[in-house]
Specification:
The structure is a homodimer. By secondary structure, chain A is of the alpha+beta class. Chain A has nine helices and eleven strands. The termini of chain A are far apart. Chains A and B meet through α1, β1, β2, α2 and β3 of A and α1, β1, β2, α2 and β3 of B. β2 of chain A pairs antiparallel with β1 of chain B, so a sheet runs across the interface.
Amino acid sequence: MDEFGIIQKYFAPLAKGYKGALGLKDDAAIYTPTIGKELILTKDAIAQGTHFFGNEKPEQIAHKLVAINVSDLAAMGATPKAYLIAMILPKSTDEQWIAGFTEGLRSATEKFGGHIIGGDTVAHDGKMSFSLTAIGEVPSGKAIKKSGARQGDKIYVSGTIGDSYLGLQILSKKLDIKSSYLKNRYLMPEPKIKLSIKLQGVASSCTDISDGLVADLKHICGTSGVGAVINTDNIPLSEDAVKSGVSIEKLITGGDDYELIFTIPPEIKAPKGAFYIGDITKNKDVLFLDSNSRPIKTAKEGYNHFS
Amino acid sequence: MDEFGIIQKYFAPLAKGYKGALGLKDDAAIYTPTIGKELILTKDAIAQGTHFFGNEKPEQIAHKLVAINVSDLAAMGATPKAYLIAMILPKSTDEQWIAGFTEGLRSATEKFGGHIIGGDTVAHDGKMSFSLTAIGEVPSGKAIKKSGARQGDKIYVSGTIGDSYLGLQILSKKLDIKSSYLKNRYLMPEPKIKLSIKLQGVASSCTDISDGLVADLKHICGTSGVGAVINTDNIPLSEDAVKSGVSIEKLITGGDDYELIFTIPPEIKAPKGAFYIGDITKNKDVLFLDSNSRPIKTAKEGYNHFS
């Protein structure tokens, strides 16, 4: 089956609910913005061997691709509307794989909202990689930025930290425990879009935790020109993470959580699903305190390409 | 230098003119649509070994990536506004290469219009590949689609056909002639954005020639439910293409021209820079006639992945 056949058989059905996608038969898609809204645009790429193994189910790879991009929209408080995909595939890719991948795209976009409205497919001699452009909408002026944290704001996370890191350790055979929960947290992340909508006009800053809690909190503090003190005893951990016996330093630097970390001024009540972990300070240090209020030293501060 | 260092040193300057890019420090960019305009969204990917050799200057690869995406915007009559880039690079990529690539992005986006407002960089064990999402604007309802060609419309192209195909043949050492003009047409395509703006409200259909004149005219005819008769003597050829002695069949099926092919109702005057090549017919055949009005047979009908 040729490229146009694949587009019409597997991708066009995903675009069906979006008139401006023009059935994926045109050079580009037409997007009609909603009056009173601004668009939020993000684009994350994943490559075999770096972000995924390649032997996962194609449905899982597709889910993760959509989820990590939707997580960036959630970080800004935006509602997912549309996606454009680029697939770089080995020439040997068979139709069954593509069928599974597009089924994963269908199920993820149905779950999180929005339609595939365009993209490109390339067959080459090499490994798989993918990028997705996600387009969301927020009421004009309501996008939540990293830069809005102020002294005295309370710091929250949206769920348990370190599960995805542990899942990756299990899948890489570096950690010998059984937990399909932890593996699933790595393979099938769930962006916090419902909570993120409640943060509009509530959170002073927000980002999603992809590089690790420590690194992403430092991004908030760096762009906001503030510091933070975190009581690590407050950081929510799953039962399986506690049982694993892995140190808190590793859990908060591991990355790939796709939870939200956000700040809320002290006079505003946090929505349900927000876990208080510490406070924004004027002093620009970002400190993680143990049970005895002593700062923890973290050697690795999140994942960084080219480092 | 780490990923964040590269973003701030090389990519942030490209985003400087666009406030919503937030200095590339946030999770996503904020795009404020112009009132009365619709957005045109496209995303094309290029991979080493498939769309480029890899030993080109990084500036040239960047130029081509921007140009082929802008060409898709031009095909719809849209003005370029913003771009998001994904770069999948070998781990061995050095800073000098990235400096050259971003210089190519700067020069192309300055030339064609619009700003880089986001993206992602991945280092992996493998070859280079890139995707670009291009965002353009058209007055609402004015996007030119492939599907609008009607019986009696005249068919035009925006420039000489087959030059890029010949350039690729020279660069691949399959054609032994000297022509920096032809090589340049392959390496540094120039999307026809100025002409495309003049086609708003004038052309009944349009697409850019990336898969070859034959294949792309068939896309117009297929989506419009019409046919075409082309007099191949009318197809504009460069002096170097004529001198090459390569057959017209190869020139019109080679692809990568990034010229526009469009249709205009007979009562409307074509703008300057439009070359008349034939007519839209009710009969759904797409015929290319030689000097004796005999149909030419074209074996290969444009480039197709997975075929």
